Amino acid sequence: MSRIGLMPIVVPQGVKVAIADGKVTVEGKKGKIFRQFSKDMMITLKDNVLTVARPSDDRMHRSLHGLSRTLLANMVEGVTNGFEKNLELSGVGYRAQKTGNKLALQIGFVNTIEFVPPEGVDIAVEGTSKVKVVGIDKELVGLTAAKIRALRPCDAYKGKGIKYSYEKLRLKAGKAGKATAKK
């Protein structure tokens, strides 16, 4: 039995949910988001509570049950509170600036790298070394933050690069540490 799939989703005040042929549209104060779900999953809205049911205990239905419920919960959470990922730039001369809707990054390359966020994602720069990725779609926010981080991941020896704010780096010793360890 799916523990996650059976949990009901309480729809907050001011959030509208529309269900039609497996397509669910959720609209709230932050925006509007929709997603197509499997036609096998039975999604119902009753008394501001969303529930997901599966037709059988088939392996595919069991896996879709929990996934569908989690995606629905993320949609409701996104239109009420939104999602955000925080990135930090560390290194001498590493800077971030917002020009229009683009993010201009100086991260140790000769040229400045311009990153254009996808539709539905906003980027804010705090100071010169902190970047905040904000949006209502959890998947899109995480993907955008991962793409920005992939432009210059943190180096294991000096710690220079782009990292998530919660990420802890373990720096390696380098050549000097190796030479003294052999004695």
Describe this structure as you would to a colleague.
The protein is an alpha+beta fold and 183 residues long. The chain folds into 2 domains: 3-80, Ribosomal protein L6 (Outer Surface Protein A, domain 3), CATH 3.90.930; 83-164, Ribosomal protein L6 (Outer Surface Protein A, domain 3). The chain contains 4 helices and 13 strands. The protein has a 4-stranded antiparallel sheet, covered by helices on one side. It is elongated and about 60 Å long. The model has no long low-confidence stretch (mean pLDDT 91).
User: What is the number of strand segments?
Assistant: 13
At CATH level 3, the topology of the largest domain is Outer Surface Protein A, domain 3
**End-to-end Cα distance:** 58 Å
Radius of gyration: 22 Å
- Going by CATH, the architecture of the largest domain would be Alpha-Beta Complex
> How many domains make up the coordinates?
2
Into which percent range does the helicity of residues fall?
25-40%
Secondary-structure map:
Elements: H1 3-6, E1 9-10, E2 16-20, E3 23-27, E4 32-36, E5 42-46, E6 49-53, H2 59-80, E7 83-90, E8 95-99, E9 102-106, E10 113-115, E11 121-126, E12 130-135, H3 138-150, E13 161-164, H4 175-181
Antiparallel strand pairs: 1-6, 2-3, 3-4, 5-6, 7-12, 7-13, 8-9, 9-10, 11-12
